Amino acid sequence: MRRMKNEIEDEMLPNNMTESQLNDEGNGGSDSKVVLKKGPWTSAEDAILVGYVKKHGEGNWNAVQKHAGLLRCGKSCRLRWANHLRPNLKKGAFTAQEERLITELHAKMGNKWARMSAHLPGRTDNEIKNYWNTRIKRRQRAGLPLYPPEVCLQAFQESQQSQSTCGVNGGNKVHHDMLNSYEIHDAIIDSMKDNQGISPYVPEPPDISDYNNMLKGLDSSQYCNFTSSTSPNHKRLRGSTMPFLGSSGMSRNVFYPFDHIQVNACDKIAQSFGMQSPLDHGPSLHSSMCYSHSLSNGNSSTSKPTSEAVKLELPSLQYPEIDLGSWGTSPPPPLLDSVDDFIKYPTPISAMESDCSSPQNSGLLDALVYQAKTMSSSKKHNSDEISNSSTAILDHRADSSTLNMHETEWEDYADPVSPFGATSILNECPAIANANSLDEVPPDQTFNGNIVKLESADQVWTPNSENQTMSVLNITWPDILLDEDWLQQDSDNGTNQTIRTDAMSTLFGDDLATDYKHMTDGTSKSSQVWGFGSCARNHSAFCLSRV
DNA sequence: AAAGCCCACAACCGCTCCCGA
DNA sequence: ATCGGGAGCGGTTGTGGGCTT
């Protein structure tokens, strides 16, 4: 069918081309009147493109239209060449070996299709992407985990290995992957051992925009003396990637307690890097918050309207078909309500703000960007006005604003590659992270004024502001430890439990791992109880703190 | 046989980065 | 320092084929 259509177009193409070419040339090369063709490529077009590339080589794709008379935009030409016409392309189904490799690569890289394709000669990123998306759907339907356990474990071990073999100060060229966790790891452990911090879980929805605002604002390493790597990954935060996040089948009714872990470690971390404690910049800040990387399985959507809030959080083919009404034994979803409330009822903010455009029907990210704007402009308003607000949004904003101080850590540890990198928020709200409006908010200012006041009014738990300045560090927890299947298997098979506990031990120390074990097997008698909760409808972001 | 659904694939779109003027 | 074009990347959509009912 498609072939027939193309053949018909082949026959028609020369005339069209001639006419367009004449128009093009007659207008002095102006593209304004040239209607570029879309849709499937014809063999004639392919021939033209191949001939052009043979003659001129790759690149300068926009010149193809001008010089070869191909009525295709440069992007289309490049794509056609890269995906179909260039030599050495391997066509046909993926081999088992390739599939295995893709799985492993995705576990490590996430949706970095181009990078993955570099490991698969003859395969294009588009091919891999399509394969992965269909694979995800298949496995979701089959109720299979996205990654085989051995792949998860391998990635975990590799991550651990990379952390242990590469220190933060190992050189200027330390890759971001390597920078990812080493020091922060120690800091976390130390902090968790030293700080029997009181940090009950408070199910507050994260303010992603504020968080990204924080990240953006602190990009100048305000609080950080060492320079982060110049990894491309660092620059390109668009890729929403969350390796190890479970597929739909696993995430239904799953309580992922450790996806994100919050630790009162900011001071430790800051000190470990020779940084000034960011807490010096502001009043006491609590850690009772969590951050949802709302797009647990790696895709983000930036264009869906607000009315599709659910789809916003679960866009794309990789999204689970979550029963939104069932949360099993997980904590009640105030977060969800709140987030949804924010999506649905931005009115309080918009009523408060006059110089920001309302998100209204423009989608979650728009709403978040809007919220960031609002946050910025909220500085213009007196504190009473804000503190009197009872909206959850403001609560969230206040909470999340406290994270501004930790941006350095996030920024420098953010690693799209490592399963343990703090990538999720960065990657999953790229539009926000790059929103111009966010640049307007100096991070330090965020700590002052209204937001802080607001926080003091709304926070559920307040640390000792003098000596026990609490802070938050979220760690992206590998879902290998969170997988529903694993949890389910615990009752009759201790193997996975052991693996997870070992992993916990590696990451947090034996005592905490023991706590974790007790918690998961329901035998917790420890006086130290893990508090955790869900942060978003996608079930993937949870906070953990010791209470 | 027809309709509906699902799947795989190709292509497009929006965004970002890079680089040269 | 700024701007604009080129290029690349990742997400999304459109379409045709195959299968099922």
From TrEMBL:
One of its GO terms (cellular component) is nucleus. It comes from the Eukaryota. Residues 33-85, 86-136 form the Myb-like domain. This is Uncharacterized protein. One of its GO terms (biological process) is regulation of growth. It is found in: Nucleus. Keywords: Activator, DNA-binding, Nucleus, Repeat, Transcription, Transcription regulation. PROSITE patterns: HTH_MYB (PS51294), MYB_LIKE (PS50090). One of its GO terms (molecular function) is DNA binding. Residues 33-85, 86-140 form the HTH myb-type domain. Residues 15-24 have a biased composition (Polar residues). Residues 1-36 are annotated as: Disordered. SMART domains: SANT. SUPFAM superfamilies: Homeodomain-like. PANTHER family: TRANSCRIPTION FACTOR MYB33-RELATED (PTHR47995), TRANSCRIPTION FACTOR MYB65 (PTHR47995:SF18).
